[in-house]
């Protein structure tokens, strides 16, 4: 009894040292290992994150998985969600990327990733619930009943991404996403407001809210919709970058509009490149060669509108001979 009290007091003492800003980083890992040795389950979770992220040591997935599994078995449901994300993206927590095994080499089945995520969700971890919904959506699509069920559960638990998706599903008249005692319209508004009620780093809820406000489905001023679209664009959503960049061009803010559209293009948006081509072709006659460059870039991304523009430009002979020859050469290669 006495030894147990002493051990708990020592664990509490080490925990305070970890939380203190005066502890040098080189001592943190040693202290965490001491905590883990004495059975402090919170240390398992922190060690797992350290080895997966490579914060103070070289990133090592097997070691990170070992500590996270110990944390999960000790009752930290968040650990299962972290394992799911690490297994789905080779240790990167930011997005679902290529799939890797624990040794960071061979692809794995998403079913295993889903099992870990659902385990975290069943333990009450909200990010795990949201990740389960994203995985199922990717695997089976929204027509799948299990996917719809998980999205709804994650939304009810408070995951903003799932709440944004629930608002979209309610706007399509899917009764399962109507909130109790609310009409379709009321449910859409409530889900939308919940999804943006807290500051998050996921752009989708902001983009969804901006669209619903712009269409008049959710009450809100055009300025509010614009700010939400900007937020989604600044968080890296490519479609939001394209829409917001186009909006800025229409408002006469060329410098920032072009900047957002260029970022969208470099991330793979053919729409953004086509918009830039249209802008230079229609507004700056001296920049026809620049317009051609952006149309060709869009066409390389198989953008049908850009290819049509290139054909029209050639046969209407609206450019000088040099630019027409460049387009003909490209179109011949494309065909």
Structure at a glance:
The protein is an all-alpha fold. It has helices at 2-19, 25-37, 41-53, 61-73, 77-89, 110-122, 126-140, 145-157, 160-171, 184-195, 204-214, 222-234, 238-250, 254-266, 270-283, 288-300, 304-316, 321-334.
Number of DSSP strand runs: 0
Radius of gyration over C-alpha positions, nearest whole angstrom: 26 Å
Spatial separation of the terminal alpha carbons: 82 Å
Spans of at least 5 consecutive residues whose pLDDT stays below 50 are 91-107
Number of helices: 18
Helical/strand content category: mainly alpha
Beta content comes to under 5%
Q: Helix proportion of residues, in percent?
A: over 70%
| Mean pLDDT over the full residue set | 81
Main beta sheet strand tally, sense and closure: none
Give the overall shape, derived from the CA principal axes.
Answer: globular
Order of helices and strands: HHHHHHHHHHHHHHHHHH
């Amino acid at each position: 009894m006495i030894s147990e009290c002493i051990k708990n007091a020592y664990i509490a003492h080490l925990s305070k040292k970890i939380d203190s800003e005066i502890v040098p980083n080189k001592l943190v890992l040693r202290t965490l290992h001491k905590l883990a040795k004495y059975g402090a389950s919170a240390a398992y979770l922190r060690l797992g994150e350290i080895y997966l992220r490579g914060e103070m040591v070289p990133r090592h997935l097997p070691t990170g998985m070992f500590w996270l599994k110990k944390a999960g078995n000790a009752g930290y449901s968040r650990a299962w969600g972290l394992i799911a994300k690490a297994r789905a993206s080779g240790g990167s927590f930011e997005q679902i990327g290529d799939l890797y095994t624990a040794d960071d080499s061979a692809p794995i089945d998403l079913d295993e990733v889903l099992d870990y995520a659902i385990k975290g969700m069943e333990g009450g971890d909200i990010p795990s619930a949201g990740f389960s919904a994203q995985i199922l959506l990717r695997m089976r699509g929204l027509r799948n009943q299990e996917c719809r069920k998980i999205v709804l559960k994650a939304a009810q638990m408070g995951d903003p991404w799932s709440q944004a998706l629930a608002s979209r599903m309610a706007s399509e008249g899917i009764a399962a996403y109507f909130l109790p005692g609310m009409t379709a319209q009321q449910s859409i508004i409530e889900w939308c407001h919940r999804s943006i009620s807290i500051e998050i780093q996921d752009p989708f809820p902001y983009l969804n809210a901006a669209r619903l406000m712009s269409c008049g489905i959710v009450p809100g001023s055009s300025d509010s919709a614009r700010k939400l679209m900007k937020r989604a664009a600044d968080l890296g959503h490519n479609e939001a970058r394209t829409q917001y960049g186009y909006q800025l061009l229409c408002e006469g803010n060329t410098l920032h509009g072009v900047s957002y559209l260029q970022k969208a293009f470099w991330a793979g948006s053919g729409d953004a490149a086509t918009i830039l081509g249209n802008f230079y072709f229609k507004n700056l006659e001296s920049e026809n060669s620049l317009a051609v460059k952006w149309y060709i870039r869009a066409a390389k991304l198989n953008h049908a509108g850009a290819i049509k523009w290139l054909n029209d430009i050639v046969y209407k002979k609206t450019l000088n001979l040099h630019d027409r020859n460049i387009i003909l050469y490209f179109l011949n290669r494309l065909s």
